[in-house]
Amino acid sequence: MTDAPIRLVAFDLDDTLAPSKSPLPDPVADLLRRLLARVPVCVISGGQYAQFRHQVLDRLELTPELAARLHLMPTCGTQYYRWDGTEFAQVYAETLTEAERDAALAALEEQARALGLWETQTWGPVLEDRGSQITFSALGQAAPVDAKAAWDPTGARKGALRDAVAVLLPDLEVRSGGSTSVDITRKGIDKAYGMRALVDLAGVPLAEMFFVGDRLDEGGNDRPVLDLGVRCHAVDGWEDTVAYLRDELLPLLDAQG
Predict the structure, then answer these.
(1) How many whole angstroms separate alpha carbon 213 and alpha carbon 191?
(2) Cα-flanking dihedrals φ and ψ of residue 102, to 5°?
């Protein structure tokens, strides 16, 4: 483990900073503001920017000074937003072509039906075109947290869908996403891609970054960050994140000076 100082902390969003698709709980929002006063922070997750606004920005009540230290990477780092002095503006987007989006949508529905994973009771769209990412959410985008947690507790169902779709889309990146989701982006674009981009965007080398996520296990959508060599800490829900920030990371940063 490197002894380099921590100069940027990055987080997954769903099930790391908040329950899936839900706003930041009060303790998380408070600790993130305290963290931003010390180091830049990045949030990188599979949701689109509108979800980031609802879950994160609407809960943080940021001053312009703190906003300038926040990096937002929706859709697994395929998009990047930064404070421009007035608002969070898009800096880049690795947008899929129409042919790539059509192929991804067709493959997801075909294989979900073939595997018996196309549910009849859903909450909102099952398939979503996020421009730079196509996302399958088995129970729909607005499914309750408890229903999502019960659908695939071992990850085997979405793993089977991921494997079946990947065979049909060899030129695209197909990953297990959140608790019920599979995400598709351009080849080679995952959370590691976003972290590498931050080296130039934030001016911080990988050795001085730190990442917190709930899916650092083999096959998890946070795992590419660990494989990249970034220092990481695994959590099991936002409550774990609160305890880790409060009891370990913030005191470490205070001691670091």
Answers:
(1) 11
(2) -60, -45
> What is the reported pLDDT for 190?
86
Q: What amino acid occupies position 111?
A: Q
Q: What is the pLDDT of residue 2?
A: 60
Buried b / exposed e along 200-211 (16+ C-beta atoms within 10 A): ebbebebebbbb
- β-bridge pairing 231-234 and 88-93: unpaired
pTM (whole model) above 0.85:
yes
* Contact status, residue 108 vs residue 136, Cβ threshold 8 Å: yes
- Three-class secondary structure of residue 33 per DSSP: helix
**Cβ–Cβ under 8 Å, residues 24 and 53:** no
Extended beta strands in 94-168, E state: 127-129, 134-137
Residues of the chain with pLDDT under 50: 1
Cross-strand pairs, 134: 129, 184
In total, the chain counts a number of residues equal to 257
Output the pLDDT for position 1.
Answer: 45
What is the distance between the terminal CA atoms of the chain, rounded to a whole angstrom? 20
Residue type, 120: T
CB neighbour list of residue 102: distance below 8 Å, 6 or more residues apart: none
Q: Is the dihedral of CA 141, 143, 148, 150 positive or negative?
A: negative
pLDDT of residue 220: 83
What is the per-residue pLDDT across 111-131, written as a single tens digit (0 to 9) for each?
Answer: 999 999 999 999 999 999 999
Q: How far apart are CA 5 and CA 37, in angstroms?
A: 16
Interhelix angle 98-114/156-168, rounded to 10 degrees, is 130
Q: How far apart are CA 181 and CA 119, in angstroms?
A: 13
Yes or no: say if 202 and 91 are a contact pair by the CB < 8 Å rule: no
